[in-house]
Amino acid sequence: MKKSTKLIIALLVTVGFLAVTYCVVNRAPSQELTADVQMQEIITSGGCLRCHSSNPDLPFYANWPVANGMIMKDVTAGYRTFDMTEMAEALKAGKSVGKVALAKVEKVMMDGRMPLHQYYMVHWGSTTTDAKKEMALAWVKQHRLAYYANGLAAAEFANEPIRPIADSLPVDMHKVVLGDMLYHDTRLSADNSISCASCHGLNTGGVDNKRYSEGVGGQFGGVNAPTVYNAAYNFVQFWDGRANTLAEQAAGPPLNPVEMACHSFDEIIAKLQQDVNFTKAFTEVYPEGYSEKSITNAIEEFEKTLLTPNSRFDRYLKGEKSAINDTELTGYELFKKYDCATCHVGETLGGQSYELMGVKRDYFADRGSEMTEEDNGRFKQTKTDRDKHRFKVPGLRNIALTAPYFHDGSIKTMKDAVDYMAKYQVDAILSNEELGEIVAFLETLTGEYKGKPLTNDNSKEL
User: Fold this and answer.
1) pLDDT tens digits, residue range 405-415?
2) In this protein, which residues make up the domain named Cytochrome c (predicted)?
3) Exposed (0-12), middle (13-18) or buried (19+): which is 347, by Cβ within 10 Å?
């Protein structure tokens, strides 16, 4: 046999062996397994937790001189973007995986971005094959329908990362009436000048349209007031997540020395007790009488009613395709293309996770102003380095009415906000046409309150 022929045969055998090996190590999980177990195997074989966790299981060569720099760069970037630890634990426990995690997994699978090329060239078994991709996307769809479907979206839009808002949530209407009165009651402040509605006006998009809100004595806070509308959907309250519930949130401003400046709820209660008629009405609903718990519970019940359903985009998701035009629909597709819908998910298009401000670029270095305590975000509460500059993702419902934007209130227009987010979060420079289309989509998110289109009395000034 000629030497050249032997080489060809050897080459074919080698290629065949590599092909067979590739197919074996990248075999998709068994169809006999549950969807959750299949997904566990996919993220395990893909080595996802080697980059997307706080305690990565690094390969043996991670400490080699050249490899170390490359590997740690990828690990750092992966962990900054998406910590998959909670997702992995939920899968093992058979519990629901968060809406944001579902959206992130779905997007990288659809785009084929993970694992990174330099990773799967060394770890063949990590490759995302078509079979694995199909299985992962099926899992996302199944998980969404099992845990997050609210029955409002048309069948063809049931797997969208965004959900229509419900017309109402279960509440105690007697408590709602009291909560409404307390929400607008300036007696919750030390000098009887400030109410909840002062910073979260129901006729101004649930905000005050100021960079920083003004409290007792003309003092200004250091963070932009988020909208109170649809806050019941948030997984935590405040930009830094220091309140787990609406009631906990309602307890904060009255005792904040810059906002309402009361020394204690006893001070508030003493004033309310002088109101014989209100006290009579309150004790009929709360026989135990006034307390921080009962007062904030009433406000919480009222805030659960501050929903803004039936936006044009809601109507589109429900099957009324003529509710939005072609430009707005293109804007929604761009919104998904540029990863906006991996964090701005669910009914309120946000409020479901903490995310880093400046994933791809240093927003704070470029901002041109000194760092403040509020810029630390979630770090204020946890003192964990990873949480520095992480904030609860704001919901985008009624975003056209709630300028200025970002936690620091530094951005005046939606166009600039979209431009900044694309640049600093995904390292994308959008064209003017793309910016206009995404803004057009965002304008379809303005809903109704009490059956009437939500408007803003400050709109002429914005």
Assistant:
1) 999 999 999 99
2) 35-144, 326-446
3) buried
